[in-house]
Predict the structure of Lipoprotein.
Amino acid sequence: MLGFTAFALTACQSTPETSPVANPQPAPAATAASAPAPSNSAVLDKAAAIVPPAKGVPARYAAFSGIWAGQLNGMYDGKLAVLTVSSGGQVTVSYAWGDLADNKPGVADGSGRIVGNTLKLGRLPNGADITATMLSPETLNVAYALAGQTYTGSFARVSQ
């Protein structure tokens, strides 16, 4: 009797037949532009708009204007949008971070000032202190300090 039950169960577990699909279409390939950013990535608010510096803004300050992206400690995503730059070196920014230690991805707006070749932001609402030193017109050395830890990395200009 046990052998008959095992045979009956095996017969019931056969795979169902599937009918062929007429004119199968390949799945559309995801592109970099259409693929969503990984959930642990730094994502700036789409409403963040760069205001081009006015003609009276010194070139050494205007050079900071734009969006910069990179990684801190070689593994933590970051994006810095320098939204406005005044003739006196004052700036407004939006900073986005991905997973950073035990902090979940987020965005914080802030302001600061450029002195020499370094942009120093006032403390962001999340408690972070950020400085960005211009190494070249296309590269910033960024230091991000939060909760007693300092993370550093090189950010490249991604748009002006």
Summary: Strands lie at 66-72, 76-85, 90-97, 106-115, 118-121, 129-136, 139-146, 149-159.
